[in-house]
Design goal:
Layout: H1 2-15, H2 30-36, E1 41-43, E2 50-52, H3 67-113, E3 119-123, E4 128-131, H4 133-139, H5 141-148, H6 152-155, E5 158-161, H7 166-178, H8 183-199, H9 203-215, H10 222-231, H11 235-247, H12 249-252, H13 256-264, H14 268-281
Parallel strand pairs: 3-5
Antiparallel strand pairs: 1-2, 3-4
């Protein structure tokens, strides 16, 4: 980069007739001009005057000048250019994010207000939430199959979902419309929401739920959580439960839930995973 800058300055000096810092306005012979092409120039920090690198100070303002100063200045200018590019990219990202947030806010409003809703979801608690077939079908293959095939839901404006709680269903709908989730609902109803995400084939929501449920596993709920995790194929949650049992065996082994898991013998794979994890910790 420095060599390119020097060549550019030397070229300008040649085109200027070979005049350098402190030179007069008279014409310079061609031989002198040709010799000037090989002279490296740099710019004075103080006044901007072009000076030869062999000169230790500027003839115009007498400011000291060194090659390291010139190199540092060039590097700083390059960094400034990079910063400007990054800042421009960040500005574009912020603008795009703002537009997306506005669109998602509109979808949230459409859900909460039931604007032009064409279907109603009723939970086991008989709470009803208006929704839109197009949104549900575009986000869930299960809902799409309901509306496309010869099922009663295809023409019915009412869908009863007995096995999903009201908080879980509303959290599910909010995620389908906005891609967002309520942290409080996730903490209190994470497993119920994971169950709904599994039922309606929404893998991205299921992954979010698995993370929340796995972080909430403890000795007091580990057996129940493990059984549900295996039922709904929640791999991360299963791993967290097995590790919790292995690390807290003295607390878990004497609980009624653990005794039922062992003596019922209806989930041998869970028992095997637990034993292998315990062995790995020894």
């Amino acid at each position: 980069m420095l060599d390119n800058w020097n060549r550019e300055l030397n070229y300008r000096k040649l085109m200027d007739g070979g005049r350098g810092a402190g030179a007069g306005d008279g014409a310079v012979p061609a031989a002198a001009a040709a010799e000037a092409v090989t002279v490296d120039l740099s710019m004075c920090n103080q006044c901007g005057n072009l000076i030869e690198n062999t000169v230790t100070y500027c003839h115009a303002c007498y400011d000291l000048r060194s090659e390291s100063d010139f190199r540092n200045e060039r590097r700083w200018r390059e960094l400034e250019g990079d910063f400007m590019v990054v800042e421009a990219d960040l500005h574009k990202e912020r603008a795009a994010t703002k537009r997306l947030e506005g669109a998602l806010q509109s979808f949230r409003h459409m859900l909460l207000q039931g604007i032009h809703a064409d279907v109603t979801i009723e939970t086991g608690e008989f709470d009803r939430t208006p929704a839109h077939r197009a949104v549900l079908a575009s986000r869930s293959p299960v809902f799409r199959a309901m509306f496309e095939h010869e099922l009663k839901e295809k023409t019915c404006a009412h869908i009863h979902v007995a096995d999903v709680s009201t908080p879980a269903m509303r959290a599910l709908l909010l995620y389908l419309y906005t891609g967002d989730h309520d942290t409080k609902v996730m903490k209190e109803h994470g497993m119920a929401l994971l169950t709904a995400a599994h039922k309606y084939d929404i893998p991205d929501l299921k992954r979010v739920c698995e993370t929340a449920v796995a972080n909430s596993v403890k000795p007091s709920n580990v057996i129940e959580t493990l059984q549900q995790a295996r039922l709904y194929d929640a791999t991360w949650v299963k791993r967290a439960c097995v590790d919790c049992i292995a690390q807290n065996l003295e607390k878990v082994a004497f609980t009624e839930e653990f005794r039922n898991l062992i003596f019922r013998n209806d989930d041998p794979e869970a028992i095997l995973d637990t034993i292998q994890s315990i062995a790995a910790l020894q």
